[in-house]
Amino acid sequence: MKPLVHILFALLLSALQASLLRWAGGGAFSLLLPVACVVYLAIHAGNVDGSVGAAGVGYVMDLTTGTTKGLMTFLAVAAFLVVRVVQSSVDVRGRVGFAALTGLTTFLVSFGALTLTLVASPSEVAPGIRLLPRMLVEAALTGALSPLVLEGMKRLDGLFRREETGLLR
Amino acid sequence: MLQLLKRYRELILVAALLVVPLGVYFARARRPAERSALDRAVVWATAPVEKAVSWTITGALRAWNGYLALHGAEERAVALSREVNSLLVERQELLQDRAEVERLRRLLAFARAAPGRSYVGAKVVGVELSPSGLQLLVIDRGEEDGVTRMKPVITADGVVGRVHTATAHGAEVLLITDRSSSVAVQVDRSRTRGNVRGLGRPEMCKLDYALRAEDMADGDLLVTSGTDGVFPRGLPVGKVTQLKKSGNGLFQDAMVAPAVDVTRVEEVLVVSGWETRTSEIGPASPAARGRP
Description:
The structure holds two protein chains of two kinds.
Chain A: H1 2-24, H2 34-44, H3 47-65, H4 71-87, H5 95-120, H6 132-160
Helix pairs in contact in A: 1-3, 1-6, 2-3, 2-4, 2-5, 2-6, 3-4, 4-5, 5-6
Chain B: H1 2-7, H2 9-29, H3 37-66, H4 73-113, E1 117-129, E2 135-139, E3 152-154, E4 159-166, E5 171-175, E6 182-187, E7 193-201, E8 204-208, E9 221-224, E10 236-244, E11 253-258, E12 267-274, H5 286-290
């Protein structure tokens, strides 16, 4: 149930992101807000829940970004694993740390997508390295907005938290 | 085997979540496929969400632009209103200039059409259209410009009047609509002669001395005959209206609608001289000099 809610939240984020981009920049820049969900899952969720949720979020990104199916799903799960490894050695519980990690992860996801597309797509349709500055902007903006996603995900997780009566009253 | 699977199930799951999408991606990367039914269903489910979000953002932006961002709108409106007023005045001036240019162009064309005449152009600087007194226009040219008493004053439309008094730098023009004004005319079509006399009304004159037997009809154009020694021949004076041929009497009774609307004249030409033909008496003739 929980991964499904996370995936639905990612879907909502994608819709919000599409509307925001339409009104704010008209395509001048881009965002990848669902990556923040993946980062959150990597920090707070378990291995199974988190990886399934990350794959679901990746699937949503596949659908909403219009990339070839499988690309963002793979990258989301890969990002989940990378962040999980990183967070074991770095404290990213604060908002700033979360934002920095999300920005970095977004850049890695974008860069991975670029690399895989370069490898797999016919050379005439493959994107060029000139997209790099745009990817940096995307990572910075996503990182900047990620604390809002963090709050949203925390609230969602709060819905599944059961109050335990405890022994002392 | 089962125990092995149970032991490494998380690892296997994660590996599957990595490998399967990657395989799907490489399979589809070179041959893009249509979206599956599941994909379409998800996109379909997303659409209302996106619409709702878009509607909310649009509403918020509209609210912002419509209400909150109106700070300073009054000042802008006042400034724009001032600018509009200034532009309206400027436009009015330009329209007047354009109308003046058009009138002057017509006057020029008229003057060029009769090379035998010499003209002095003048601007109307004063008007006196009293029904009880004289009907006069004051122009800005006088004796120093060659404008002297009895000189014909015309526009491109026809006769305005004649110079009544002239000073060094100005002159008064007695309009053809004045009671004491009389212009010798003839019907342009039939050459029937008569006299156009003013009635003291700017919009109407009277036709005198047109013989009853002569050919004349409503709408006939009256032009100067040149026999009065004041006006050159052939200048439009007006049109015959309200023609009445009574059973007795020598003359026809008719009114004349002046060719020139004397209430709207702004520029005129004073005919300072013209070549006389055998049937026309010029201003230099003794008859012209002796008339009031």
